[in-house]
Design a protein that fits this description.
Layout (H helix, E strand, L loop, with lengths): L8 H9 L4 E2 L2 H10 L3 E7 L10 H12 L3 E7 L20 H18 L10 E4 L1 H4 L4 H8 L5 H6 L1 H8 L6 H4 L1 H16 L1 E7 L3 H15 L4 E5 L12 E2 L2 E2 L9 H9 L6 H8 L4 H8 L6 H17 L1 H16 L9 E4 L1 H5 L2 E2 H7 L6 H9 L3 E3 L2 E2 L6 E2 L9 E6 L3 E7 L1
């Protein structure tokens, strides 16, 4: 992609903050954004009951679109979720029932509501569901009207499709149809709302290009596609993936405290880049934080954790998570806001081995792993290090509030709630 110094506020923000990866015609889009406000959309399928932080860049892009005077559309994939996007997947997605799609859709709408402040009286983000038009499609008419404009040759050339075919994995006609339906979504939004830009992650590039081409061929109009990069940490781990699984945006899947801690534990080398990508902190403030060194970089990590948690869970929840962390780490206290696992009081008072307790609260996957942690001096019970694998937790370890705190290293903690 040719280097361009954008004139439009929106593209300038995306480029300065590292949010722009590909665009079908960057110069023409920049000119259109400079001369007019535009309508753009991003789609979110409902194949899970929560989004994870892999979707945060798209949410941020919609927020910046609105901040720069343009009109965002959130497209909920109530229809396309019944098929599932096969892009860069080696196996077909599990087909979801109507009830599963409905329940997932409800949860995802709530998350987007919170992240985009859709509940505010002055909000200007339109949310629509593609089930509104996809459920009404007549198959023969759809094929006649649009089938001739879709090139199978081009579809076979996209990396997301070649990945399956080159490895001789099955690609069903159902999955093959997904890209066509997403292209049709763009056409519908263009006709209904004069939407001229579809955005998404870089794994959506092929699907987005199909929509751009379909609108050009069917309506003879020029529209655009733009993608954000797929983000990984400096260690090469895909953003949002951890040893424990995805970092979910739904509090039922991941506590606010653990969400906050994920960002607080960002590696030093990543924190400034993530402040640019995942927050709306002005870049001059980010530059000030960039010069911090040593332990001072922890201040930047706390700001990152607070900002992203506030975006996804609200100001009060972010403040509570920060306070829990301060009490836990800065003052070594036992905080009731930490992840808790209930246990029968009789089991503790009878003597519960530290090894079993570590596994029970989920801080180690096996007893052998727990023993290694103890031998390495990485385990504390109520802030006291234990070095003997035979240590037993008994009634005297239960504090007045009915908890026993177990810690692994400096950053991983859990509470046994004795009931």
């Amino acid at each position: 992609m040719a280097v361009l110094i954008p004139k439009s506020d929106y593209l300038n923000v995306l480029m300065e903050r590292g949010l722009l990866y590909q665009c079908t015609n960057l110069e023409a889009l920049d000119q259109k954004l400079t001369n007019n406000k535009i309508t753009a959309y991003i789609g979110f399928d409902c194949t899970s009951n929560s989004l994870h932080i892999g979707s945060l860049l798209q949410i941020i892009m919609l927020r910046w679109l609105r901040k720069t005077g343009n009109e965002p559309i959130v497209l909920i994939g109530g229809g396309t979720s019944k098929i599932g996007d096969p892009s860069f997947k080696l196996d077909a997605r599990k087909l979801l029932s109507e009830k599963e799609v409905y329940n997932n859709k409800s949860n995802i709408k709530n998350i987007l509501d919170k992240c985009l402040s859709l509940g505010e009286v002055s909000h200007d983000v339109l949310m629509v569901d593609n089930i509104e038009w996809l459920n009404k499609l007549e198959y023969i008419k759809f094929l006649r009207d649009y089938g001739a404009h879709i090139s199978v040759n081009q579809m076979l050339g996209f990396e997301s499709v070649k990945l399956r075919l080159d490895r001789e994995y099955s690609l069903s006609f159902l999955e093959f149809s997904y890209s066509i339906l997403q292209a049709y979504d763009f056409l519908e939004l263009h006709r209904r709302y004069d939407c001229v830009l579809q955005m998404g992650g870089s794994d959506q590039w092929a699907n987005i290009v199909h929509g751009v081409r379909l609108i050009r061929r069917v309506d003879n109009n020029k529209v655009y596609g733009l993608t954000s990069p797929l983000i990984s940490s400096s260690s090469g781990v895909k953003m949002g993936k951890t040893t424990k699984g995805a970092v979910w945006l739904n509090e039922d899947r991941l506590s606010v405290y653990n969400f906050w801690q994920y960002w607080r534990n960002t590696k030093d080398i990543d924190v400034i880049r993530f402040l640019k990508l995942f927050t709306e902190i002005p870049l001059d403030e980010v530059s000030r934080l960039a010069v911090l060194g040593g332990t001072e970089i922890n201040e930047a990590k706390k700001i990152l954790a607070n900002e992203v948690t506030q975006l996804c869970h609200g100001k009060a929840a972010a403040s509570a998570a920060a306070e829990i962390s301060q009490r836990t780490f800065d003052f070594g206290g036992i905080s009731e806001g930490l992840p808790k696992v209930d246990i029968d009081r009789r089991k503790v008072e009878a003597g519960l081995s530290a090894v079993n307790a570590i596994v029970y609260v989920g801080l180690a996957s096996s007893k052998s792993a727990a023993r290694r942690l103890i031998r390495d001096g990485g385990v504390r019970v109520n802030n006291s290090t234990i070095l003997n694998e035979s240590v037993v937790i008994a009634g005297k370890e239960i504090n007045d509030a009915g908890f026993v705190k177990i810690s692994i290293g400096k950053k991983r903690h859990a509470l046994l709630r004795v009931i």
